[in-house]
Amino acid sequence: MGICIEFQKSTSSSFEFALATAQLFDSFEEHLLGSTTIYRVTVGKGQTASLDDLLEHISGWRKRKVYVDQVAHTWDSVFGYQWCYKRKKSSFRPDIYCFGHDDSYRVNGVGCLHARMGIMDFGEWFTWGQWLDKNGTWKFDKERIQHEIEKNLHEYRFCPAISKTPTQIFLACIPDTVNPKTNKEWEFVEDYTNRVNSLPSPNSDSYMRTYIVGVRPRGDTFARRVFAALNLELLTD
Q: DSSP secondary structure string, the chain?
């Protein structure tokens, strides 16, 4: 069980390096299938970081396969995270790369740039919830937020940098309810589309009608609170 990489002898100049690297694993196996020698290495789902060197050696090979719990998968569905993980390791601040580094548009509290959970500029999750009253008290739909995080990260689920802990901390930092009229750390989100359960905006006029469709953090106070809970440093441009 786990993730199994299978490859054959290749004319690639990196074959000898790949074989030598594979032989370092306790799980290394060598089988003869007809006249073809098959090499296999198996690791746990949470141990993909140990495959870095081997993956580098067999990059681009045609005769390679990957199995997850003995079920064949396409290579990119398992190792599609590699391009981003390489960028993380070579970045200026690998420790906060996945949290958005110094790009305010990509700053997130989940620990993955692909979660699409920005916490400073605009995040779709700001509109996931419902109004509890007409005075502007908003209740976040945390179940939907968690579901969307899990869905967006599924493609990158085997990335060594992925952890469930940041998501749990991020969700805990989001207030259950908030009203920007009394909590100045938050502000209303306005849109030109009248969504279900939206509120009329006082900024509407006879030419352009707008609606209040959610709430979002004002400034970087919320982001700093999330990063403090994660024991990380928030860098923004």
A: --EEEEEE--SSTTHHHHHHHHTTSTT-EEEEETTEEEEEEEE-TT-GGGGHHHHHHTTT-SSEEEEETTEEE-HHHHHTTHHHHHHHHHSS-HHHHTTTTT-TTT-BSSS-GGG--BSSS--GGGG-EEESSTT--EEE-HHHHHHHHHHHHGGGTT-TT--HHHHHHHHHHS-SEE-TTT-TTEEEEEESS--TT-EE-TT--SS---EEEEEEE-TTHHHHHHHHHTT------
